[in-house]
Amino acid sequence: MTASQAHLFSRVARRELVSVRLEIRAALYAGVLLLTGGIALFVKENHERIGPAAIGLAIGAIAAGCLAWAWRNAPPFTWGDALSTHAAFDYVLLLGALLAAADLAYVEAQTKVLGPAWPWHLLVVSAFYALLAVRFDSKMLLSLALASFAAWRGLALSLPRASLGPGDASRLRWEALATGALFVTIGIVSARQRKKAHFEDVWVNGGIFLVLGGHLSGVFGRTEAWPAWLLALLAVAAAIAVAAYLWKRTLPFAQAVLAAYLGLLRAVFSDGGGDVAARMLLAAVLGCAALATVFLAHRRMRAL
Amino acid sequence: MKGEWVAAERAEEVRAAARGWRRAGAVSEGTFEEILRRYPEPRALPAPLWRILAFVFGSFILLAVFAAFLVAAGPNPSGAWVLCAVFGVAFIAIAEIQARSPAMALRGGAEAAGFWGLVLLVAGLFLLLEEDLHISEPTGPNLVLLGAALLLALAAWRWGSPVWAFLAAVSLFLLLGRVPGGRLLWIVCGVALTWAFERLLDRPSWSPSHRRCAAVLVVAGLLGVYAAMNLYALDHRFVEFLRERALDLPGPRFRERIWSMLGTAILPVAVIRWGIRSRRTFVLDTGLVLSAVSLVTLRFYVHVAPLWVVLTVSGGAVFLLALALNRWLSRGVEKERDGFTAEPLFADEARLRALELVPVVAAHAPEARPPVEAGYQGGGGSFGGGGAGGSF
Fold first, then answer.
1. Res. A160: pLDDT tops 60
2. Are A280 and B308 within 8 A, CB to CB?
3. Is pLDDT of B280 > 90?
């Protein structure tokens, strides 16, 4: 270790040099949240008084300003990793993208151009986010693109919303499986083709979340076919776990093991009734098996 | 805490720092390997996701076993505390066994066993006092809170967990809030906690995890003082409502409110100033959070403008201030001013960016489209494509 290295490390260790990057990034994100919340409230309270044209133009102008700034400060396009060095870049880009998407939704709501097909604007928003994500190398916008695409298919890709979404559960299940499979496929292909290969985790994890969520919806749904859904869930979870194990992907492995365990709980407690204590012990034994799988997989994945 | 655990923690700190140095390109691969060779991994340390997974499954297992015995034994309410106590002690023993094993200590299972052991012990104490000994308000709950504070403090000391330290402080504040003069006691206790543990933050003889516990207790002390001084909390008698017969209490006096207003305004600024002078980012962060709470409190009492103006202006101001700070620091000599820099130094930026994805999707993901019904003619979308709320 050189003297200059030792000097720098010593200064950091003694708090003679402290980084506030995390605080700056958190403040920028809080600013974006407050701004988008304020603008949404402004539109809600004033859209009749000011008129849709003025509001649409104003939001569009701010969004364009943010995106123009992002364009000017973005590193050159590359299919590889291209993180910007400017601390505010991600957040200006996010603000511009959110406002542009909100403006589109507002204009559509006012003009009703799409009529009964208005949910298609979600697909447009998804494509818009995806384009920006690829151009500016933003996983944040890619995750929003995936969520918007899922919303277009009627799915809620958000844990706080808890379920697949409103509507016919049976249809949503198949939508979830198809959308999830599409995401996983795109993720794998993009990684193989080395076109934004580092986006693979966003595609694959989002897709697996939907695929397993679709199966779990079948297992816990009010349907007689739940044993078939459980078998399918176990098969898919096993396949995902094996693939994740071989390619050393932690999050897909965790999702698969957790989903399989939750599905098996349905079988353990399926017909209700007596002997609850024995069922509880069986659930604990299954938990031990899952935990052993996790420990074993972790050890082997480290060694691979 | 055992001596070998402290030694293991110190080695883990060095290895973690070395990983940061290598990530930032501050040391060569050879230097990095040499550091790892000199400080071999003392305990298996899985990535956070593995630990969370082990914690979740460990919790499932422990709760299922406890529930099975609870259902099988079917104890009456006055005997349930025995079962809670037995399982609480057993879970604590399991946590201790895991903590002693270098292969198991940091896998998440010890945390799960410790957490549920403490929960059951506190629940057992509550059942003993309430159902068996029939010690009711206010003595019973006070003893439960005292027991919880002591148990959690012991657990924090034994296993070096900041979570237990924070929960111990919360239990202590809840207990103090239940005695007459609770608000004043919150201030006294908060100041005492902050003063006492600030002095221990850099004590070399303390293990890294104990110093983290001390940092958490400093924050807990500051939060306790602020909660006692905040005007909104005073007007709504948050502390006094912890006591029995709080509804009979009169409202705050004029002089109390004046002091409270001063505290709400001055304390966050003082904490920020302390954070800057001491260059402790966790103190600075606490001050920033308290400032935000004070501004929300101000907005509650003083309506200077419509909410959308407040949100938009404050959002713009926060954004521009952060940008200005970033620029100011970046233009200093060697990109630093007064010992602060906007550079990431040795932090894992990629991990931070990955962690940002979850709140962004949770806050801004559009709602799923509603199901299409027969004869449906549309009716407009929602202003949610960008994640903003509000519908038309």
1. no
2. no
3. yes
- The reply to whether B371 touches chain A by the CB within 8 Å rule is yes
- Evaluate whether B365 touches A155 at the Cβ level (below 8 Å): no
User: Strand runs (DSSP E) across A98-230, as ranges?
Assistant: none
Q: Please count the structural domains in chain B.
A: 2
Amino acid at B391: S
| CA distance linking residue A139 with residue A134, whole number of Å | 9
How far is residue B161 CA from its own chain's centroid? Answer: 11
What domain range is B327 assigned to? 304-363
Q: How far apart are CA A28 and CA A154, in angstroms?
A: 31
Q: How confident is the model at residue A158 (pLDDT cuts 50, 70, 90)?
A: low
Asked if B312 has any chain A CB less than 8 Å from its own CB, the reply is yes
Residues B275 and B336 in one domain: no
Contacts of A11 (CB under 8 A, 6+ apart): A17
Q: What is the pTM of this model?
A: 0.86
Contact predicate B260/B252, CB 8 Å? yes
Q: Are residues B315 and B280 in the same domain?
A: no
Residue B334, sorted as left (phi over 0), alpha (psi -120 to 50) or beta, turns out to be left
- CB-based contacts of B176: which residues, under 8 Å, 6+ apart? B182, B185, B186, B189
Alpha carbon of B170: minimum distance to chain A alpha carbons (Å):
26
The DSSP string of A94-121 is HHHHHHHHHHHHHHHHHH-SSGGGTTHH
Please tell me whether residues A168 and A145 are part of one structural domain. Answer: no
Share of chain A above pLDDT 70, in %: 94
Least confident of A174-183, A244-253, A292-301: A292-301
Do A35 and A132 lie in one domain? The reply is yes
B380 at interface of A, judged by CB pairs closer than 8 A: yes
B291 and chain A in contact, CB less than 8 A: no
Q: Are residues B197 and B234 in the same domain?
A: yes
Question: Is the Cβ–Cβ distance between B222 and B285 less than 8 Å?
Answer: no
Whether residue B244 sits in one domain with residue B178: yes
For B134, residues 6+ apart whose C-beta sits below 8 A from its C-beta are none
Give CA–CA dist A207/A188, Å, rounded.
11
DSSP H helical segments within chain B, as ranges?
A: 3-23, 29-38, 48-73, 80-100, 109-127, 139-159, 162-177, 182-198, 208-229, 231-235, 254-278, 281-301, 307-330, 349-364
- pLDDT level of residue B247 (50, 70, 90 thresholds): low
Quote the CA–CA distance of B325 and B234 in Å, as a whole number: 34
| Domain assignment present for A137 | yes
* Structural domain includes residue A131: yes
DSSP class of residue B44?
-
pLDDT tens-digit readout, A98-135: 999 989 988 888 888 887 778 888 999 999 999 999 99
Instruction: Name every chain A residue with its beta carbon within 8 A of the beta carbon of B336.
Output: 17
Do A133 and A178 share a domain, yes or no?
A: no
* Position with higher pLDDT, B254 vs B75: B254
